[in-house]
Write a structure and sequence with these properties.
The complex is a heterodimer. Chain A is an alpha/beta fold. Chain A has 18 helices and 27 strands. The chains are: A alpha/beta, B mainly alpha.
Chain lengths: 580, 92
């Protein structure tokens, strides 16, 4: 690792903002490509150098400063590509808080966009001319209805407006809001400031051993924290090239990602666990002629639980193409920690260990008694430099020693500032204190796990109700609401949606739902199930693995009448819930 | 790979067979009038479905087809009429 590049990058952590980092890159390496966008077929489509990105972001910032004041919010609605990053940096330069969002799906009526709009009250929505003009259906109509101004960043800007001078962002200014937490009814926008972002980018750099030569190839959407921070922003922080492949192109043809890694001699590429499975499932040697993955030094896996079988199958399948299993790099993180909480050592490979199933049921990490008792868990690495990870009893707040399972708590400069205009949720999640340690606040992750004696973190489950499918968060209450709205025979507030994961299988969605007493004998269950399935597919873009209609009164409730989801799930797994 | 003279009915049959094989627990009969959303095709699974259909037919198809032609019958009719090509068909 060249020492000069190391010094150069390390000093960037002390800059006041990510905006200053881009200006530094534009000055230091103006003609190096920052981002290269590939088409749906994996061909080079567009590219931007650091100098060009700086120039375009600055021009956009001048336009934005006429329409919005620093601290106001702008939604970012973009397909994968360079325009999204121009918009993001344009917001940073103007001091406007960016809110990256998925472009609404065609048919979905009740996705999160409306509630996010109501929560962060943006002044603007930034998008492309194609989306704004409704070339492919008016996907953005719902934003216009609210009176929100849509601004196409790729439309000719005309005269550069003479607006107010642009502010110089500071470390404690908010850079963006991440709305990956929280349900549609209760969205939670994680507030990330420049200090958080720079701290986490530096932590990631050190943990990954990245340099300016660490070319990235990424298919993970830019509205997803992993896609934005671990890929696009980390590459810019390093001064490395980031190649962007549209997510749908990857889903359709995973080999395009592998070919791009090989063609561009990328060092870093990764994504959620399911992406690696997809590469294996759709592997066809004739599509990978001449593929050489020996350049790939860091294959990060995260955003959802990492499965040992996935890693083993991927390494075995691609070894003939010179993939090095030591490149596998499981990690763990969440938006509330900006992104990354833990990660492995570069080129050390995945840590996979067997633990006793029986022991884990009593919240202890013990060696298996016999092969039947063994459960393989993939380690997620160690706490990053400058961060502390603690395992805490979620009921008592008492710190637990290594080998004990508890809730994962995190402290560090990467912990975000809280949830946008939501003091109670902020206090509950970000203001936790360990018993007997009153001097600091911790982030409660809602995930369960343990640390071994070396400090390796293992995730075993979660307390929070979120369901994670293909690396994205889904909230049970949203799904339950969709289910109950799909047919009048279904009882309101008498259903549960939860995830079931069996060993090496990824999480699958199970829906159990009570039927109205008066309808029990009159309905055609298969039709109702079909309606439920269709509603969930349309509104949430996920497929329920199982849908079970239940007799009224089957689901456990608290004394105040709320469905006990965790217990319902346990009853389901035990086979105690009776279908109609 | 399909032979040169693929009919609308051939395409329907292929779709029904594929979806029967791959559907995760649909619980309903898969016939030509079945809607893709009803069969549980989300954007990811419909992406794989279209890619497989493309490969069988030997011709490019736009992934949005499942939205624009939301039943097996409609999709088969559209594709059989030879208009299923993707917008950037020239680019390959």
């Amino acid at each position: 690792m060249p020492a000069a590049a190391d010094r150069d990058t390390a000093s960037l952590a002390d800059l006041p903002s990510l905006a200053a980092v881009l200006r530094h890159r534009a000055a230091e390496q103006p003609n190096d490509r920052a981002y290269l966008a590939l088409s749906d077929r994996g061909r080079e489509d567009a590219a931007v150098t650091f100098a060009e990105l700086d120039r375009r972001a600055f021009a956009l910032a001048r336009r934005l400063s006429v329409c919005a004041r620093p601290g106001e919010r702008a939604l970012l609605l973009f397909p994968m590509g360079i325009d999204c990053l121009v918009a993001f940096f344009g917001c940073l330069y103007a001091g406007i808080i960016a809110v990256p969002m998925m472009v609404p799906r065609r048919q979905s009526a009740r996705d999160a966009s409306s509630s996010i709009l109501a929560d962060c009250t943006p002044r603007l929505a930034l998008t492309t001319a194609e989306l704004a003009e409704g070339a492919r259906g008016d996907l953005l109509g719902r934003f216009r209805e609210g009176g929100l101004e849509l601004l196409a960043v790729d439309a000719p800007g005309g005269e550069m407006p003479v607006g107010p001078d642009l502010p110089e962002p500071r470390r404690d200014d908010f850079a963006f809001l991440q709305y990956t937490s929280g349900s549609t009814s209760a969205p939670k926008g994680v507030m990330v400031n420049h200090g958080n972002l720079l701290a986490n980018l530096e932590m990631i750099r050190v943990a990954c051993g990245n340099t300016r030569a660490s070319t990235y190839v990424s298919w993970v959407p830019l509205y997803h924290d992993m896609g934005l921070i671990l890929n696009a922003l980390q590459a810019l922080y390093l001064g490395a090239l980031c190649v962007l492949l549209p997510p749908m192109a990857f889903l359709r043809r995973p080999y395009l990602w592998l070919r791009a890694i090989s063609d561009y001699r990328a060092e870093v590429a990764g994504g959620p666990n399911f992406g690696f499975d997809l590469c294996v499932e759709r592997h066809r040697p004739e599509q990978l002629d001449g593929l050489d993955l020996s350049c790939w030094k860091l294959a990060f896996v995260g955003a959802e639980p990492v499965r040992a079988a996935t890693i083993e199958r991927f390494a075995a399948t691609f070894r003939p193409y010179n993939f090095d299993p030591q490149a596998m790099w499981p990690g763990y993180g969440m938006a509330e920690a900006t992104l990354l909480i833990s990660g492995g050592r570069r080129r050390a490979g995945a840590v996979v260990r067997d633990f006793s199933r029986a022991g884990l049921l009593t919240n202890e990490a013990l060696p298996p008694r016999d092969p039947a008792d063994a459960q393989a868990i993939v380690g997620c690495g160690r706490a990053l430099v400058g961060e502390e990870v603690a395992i805490v009893d979620p009921e008592t707040g008492v710190r637990l020693g290594h080998g004990r399972v508890g809730e994962i708590w995190v402290a560090g400069a990467n912990i975000a500032q809280g949830y946008w205009q939501n003091p109670s949720a902020t206090e509950a999640t970000f203001g936790a204190q360990i018993a007997g340690e009153a001097d600091r606040c911790w982030l409660r992750t809602g995930d369960l796990g343990f640390l071994d004696a070396t400090g390796e973190l293992f995730i075993t489950g979660r307390i929070k109700d979120v369901i994670i499918i293909r690396g994205a968060n889904h909230y049970p209450q949203d799904i339950e609401d969709t289910v109950q709205s799909s047919d009048a025979v279904l009882r309101r507030h008498a259903g549960a949606a939860f995830a079931v994961a069996d060993g090496d299988q990824s999480e699958r969605l199970v829906i159990v739902q009570e039927v109205e007493r008066t309808e029990r004998n009159r309905i055609a269950p298969a039709e109702v199930v079909g309606r439920i399935r269709e509603a969930v597919v349309i509104e949430h873009d996920i497929v329920p693995h199982e849908i079970a209609l239940l007799r009224p009164g089957s689901l456990p409730k608290t004394t105040s009448g709320k469905i006990q989801r965790g217990l319902a799930r346990q009853l389901w797994l035990d086979g105690s819930l009776e279908r109609l | 790979m399909a032979s040169a003279n693929v009919t609308e009915s051939d395409i329907q049959e292929w779709c029904i067979a594929y979806l029967t094989r791959t559907a995760d627990n649909p619980g309903i009969a898969i016939g030509p009038e079945a809607r893709f959303t009803e069969l549980g095709l989300d954007s990811a699974t419909s992406a794989y479905f279209i890619v497989e259909l493309e490969e069988w037919l030997g011709t490019e198809l736009a992934p949005e087809l499942v939205f624009e032609y939301p039943t097996i019958a409609e999709l088969a009719r559209h594709v059989a009429s030879g208009q299923g090509g993707a917008a950037d068909a020239g680019g390959g």
